[in-house]
Amino acid sequence: MTARVGVVTFPGSLDDRDAQRAVRLAGAEPVALWHRDKDLHQVDAVVLPGGFSYGDYLRCGAISRFSPVMDTIIEQARQGMPVLGICNGFQVLCESHLLPGALTRNDSLHFVCRDQKLRIENADTAWTSDYASGQEIVVPLKNGEGRFVADEHVLDELEAEGRVVARYLDVNPNGSYRDIAGITNAAGNVVGLMPHPEHAVEPLTGPTTEGLGFFTSVLKQLVNA
Amino acid sequence: MSLDTVKNAEQTPDAAQPWAELGLKEDEYARIREILGRRPTGAELAMYSVMWSEHCSYKSSKVHLKQFGEKAPENDAMLVGIGENAGVVDVGQGYAVTFKVESHNHPSYIEPYQGAATGIGGIVRDILAMGARPVAVMDPLRFGAADHPDTRRVLPGIVAGIGGYGNCLGLPNIGGEVVFDSCYQGNPLVNALCVGVMKHEDIHLAKASGPGNKVILYGARTGGDGIGGVSVLASETFDATGPAKRPAVQVGDPFQEKLLIECTLEIFKEDLVAGIQDLGGAGLSCATSELASAGTGGMRIDLDTVPLRDNTLSPEEILMSESQERMCAIVEPAKVERFLEICEKWDVIATVIGEVTDGERLEIFWHGEQVVDVPPRTVAHEGPTYHRPFARPGWQDALQADAPTAERLARPANGAELKDALLKVAGSPNHASKAWITDQYDRYVLGNTVLSVGEDSGMIRIDEETNLGVSVATDGNGRYAKLDPYTGAQLALAEAYRNVAAGGAKPLAVSDCLNFGSPEDPDVMWQFAEATRGLADACQVLGTPVTGGNVSLYNQTGDVAIHPTPVVAVLGVIDDVTRRTPVGFGEQGQLLYLLGDTEDELGGSAWAQVAHDHLGGLPPKVDLERERLLGEILIAASRDGMIDAAHDLSDGGLGQALVESCLKGGNGARVVVPEGLDPFVFLFSESAGRAVVSVPRSEEVRFNDMCGARGLPVARIGVVDGDALEVQGQFTVTLAELKDAHTGVIEALLA
Q: Annotated catalytic sites of A, by residue?
């Protein structure tokens, strides 16, 4: 039996079908989850996709965090279910306090879309085990509010515990503290990432296929579990 | 406050009405009285005034636009032609594609961010209303001189507005144009294009038929924004209890529009609508009168039921409001419940506001009293028609005589001067990298973007199993059109056609956005007449019908009109997107071929503008049969794997094309000037019907044979090699130097 990976659609989610495609190309079965439905339909892992949920009004991710589906996801994530938040999904994870810190307006004050080089700093999470630690990859980045910020002691703690999952290389596109592009929780099952690995899964449409590893990583973990 | 009912209008025939303030002419007002057999009510006057405006009625342009229908080439792919929200084209495998380009020029000048944002919103709803899922947007933009302070005011806002709205909708921005010219100072052009995809059976039309069917308004609440001329009327009729100084520019909410898209597509999927129309210019007036007019004619609306953001709005204002993110659907009674359920699922407000009747009149009620009673066709489709006078301008001959010959404009005389000219063009705002702009747009969302930034066309995969795809290019050159509007319009079409073919897609159909000055100026009207005639003639030869578009007039500051700027979008289809041809030279050692004939044609050229700030002479000649042949060669070569890169030659000529292809691919090139050709003409001429291609050595014989057999002149001009562009015997310029000149230009101007 293949792994079932849920992809949540909030009102205003945009990259939900892209995340489903990436799950499918990685060999798992994508399952569409609806924000109003508390039921996760027996999925083994969840992706919170990019977009502008609830228009990003108030604060990015601040309203989605209170949707019925998030109640269940927060509970399951605390029990170890793998959860990947991409872009807006990362913002939702921070608003849900599953991950520390916050994402604020890019320091350029402009939305930025570019092919971004990253270094995978932690290849031991549920979503990065198919990479080598220190591996460099290029995936699209596109955000207006992607600047990762946190208190100094939180940043020090993330670094000390090896919880920085990916860092920007060459260019810091949004002013994130310490070039942080993604982080994980202490258990390594919840990962938040500002760039978009789901847009680097096919040579035809992506700058590379180096984003697929996030989705094959979780599949491997689920199959081995 | 007093309500101007139909009854009241009958009883007070001599009441003074602000028809002139609303932009109506005396004879137009008289005609409305004649149609109705009485004076119009305030609400009726508001409806007629806005629907009979130039923007909605095309009253000055339609006598010329009808050529697009009369001269339309036979084309089996056309499923829906001009007159609907957008044309629909068959692209095979059961898919249909709809696309349209539209202007939002004036609002974007007044309020750059919202003007541009709602331009995107409006065109996306047009596409949605046809039954299609919107899949991509493009934005042809024109600004005043790059170093002018007002450009610094409008450009960042317009770009942020397009990005802010399009990104939040989740539509990839796959291309467009950015042109700077002082003629657009005080009158930037913001054109927006959207492409949508559907299955044939999903096509929906804007008509209301079937008495008893319900009229449902859904989407955003109606507010006081976007009420232009009508505020005049409101201020006449009402006291100061209403909100003052309503903004004439609408305010967009892309999140609401995203919900509207998903909700509408789900409604289509369950086949719940009999007719549908988006609310854009002229709001509810336009939607109700057009739906009724295209259907059986009768409709009754209760305005009290319209959900409002502002309860002080008058019936006139509700009818005129251009609040964004609204749609109007005609739904059979048995399907209303399910329709409302789906709207609720997406948190979209939906309200039954009326029904289709078996009569022939559009009747609108407010507080139980009738405020509108009109034959809808007279509002929507039978507006006035003007035969505006036009004449070839007195200055046209002198302009054309001022040709950029070697005697009149000094040309680069040696290798060093050629290199300098190349770098100057590549680093001029019109030809420099637009990354500062395009990096603010999401080009990846939906995961089907095959070609976008810096390519000749934008290409989208529409079927992941079969790899069927479509591509679109938009082009327009106001400088060419100023020199000769007939040829200029044809050159715009030829360039867009060539761009689509260069990517490997077969051009199928055209949409156009015709941006001109005041139709009351005979010079401008002549430009318009010539451009439409040129475009219609060229579409006939190339077999690509105009499926729809938009006319934007009165683009001028004081008495000075913009250059006539017909922007032409060409849609193409490609059976297998994995065969697409990119612009960048990707592989060292491949051979470079120049396709087509190069002549001494520099009138309106980029070089003349950059080096001498000169505009005069004649634009390049057009040979449409040659364009078609070149297109066939490019498509066949792409399909059969004979070329790995292709770039059309247009403004900036071969030199600029080489710069772009080298930088995009990260590879240099060594080229040789063909015998008998002047090096300057070789690099800077803008002769049409040309492209440069990169051919793998293994394909050289086959490629040459194909071109030879079909009679297309080709010249082998060099090889992809090294990390510099070398024009042998003339100059060498490193990619680093080129990149330095070509990038950072826009941001430096705006800093």
A: 87, 196, 198
Q: Is B345 helix (H, G, I), strand (E, B) or coil?
A: helix
Span(s) in chain B for CATH 3.90.650.10: 6-61+202-380, 582-751
For residues B639-661, average pLDDT: 98
Domain B582-751 in this protein, CATH class: alpha beta
Is B465 within 8 Å of chain A by CB? Answer: no
At B685-707, the pLDDT tens digits run 999 999 999 999 999 999 999 99
Task: Judge whether B387 counts as a catalytic residue.
Answer: no
User: What pLDDT shows up at residue B78?
Assistant: 86
ipTM above 0.90, yes or no: yes
Domain of A197? 4-224
Question: Would you say the C-alpha torsion B3, B9, B10, B16 has a positive or negative sign?
Answer: positive
Per-residue burial over B124-138, b if 16 or more Cβ lie within 10 Å, else e, is bbbbbbbbbbbbbbb
d(CA B468, CA B480): 35
- Dump pLDDT digits (tens) for B272-330: 999 999 998 888 999 999 999 988 889 999 999 999 999 999 999 999 898 999 999 99
Q: Supply the pLDDT for residue A63.
A: 87
A52, B254: Cβ pair inside 8 Å? yes
Query: Smallest Cα–Cα separation from B456: which of B632, B619, B591, B580?
Result: B580
Known catalytic residue: B55?
yes
Q: Could you give the percent of chain B with pLDDT greater than 70?
A: 97
Fold of the B6-61+202-380 domain: Phosphoribosyl-aminoimidazole Synthetase; Chain A, domain 2 (3.90.650)
CB contact under 8 A, A111 and B259: no
Determine, for residues B440 and A111 on separate chains, whether the beta-carbon distance falls below 8 Å: yes
Is residue B242's pLDDT more than 60? no
**Distance (Å, whole) CA B99 – CA B470:** 11
Question: Going by C-beta distance under 8 Å and a sequence separation of 6 or more, which residues neighbour residue B433?
Answer: B454, B742, B743, B744, B745, B746
| Contacts for B320 with CB less than 8 Å, ≥ 6 apart | B46, B47, B50, B227, B228, B229, B230, B282, B283, B284, B285
- Collapsing DSSP to helix, strand or coil, A8 comes out as strand
8 A C-beta contact, residue A63 and residue A71: no
Q: What's the domain count of chain A?
A: 1
| Contact present, A162 and A134 (Cβ < 8 Å) | no
Residue pLDDT, tens place only, B255-283:
999 999 999 999 999 999 999 999 988 88
pLDDT of residue B208: 80
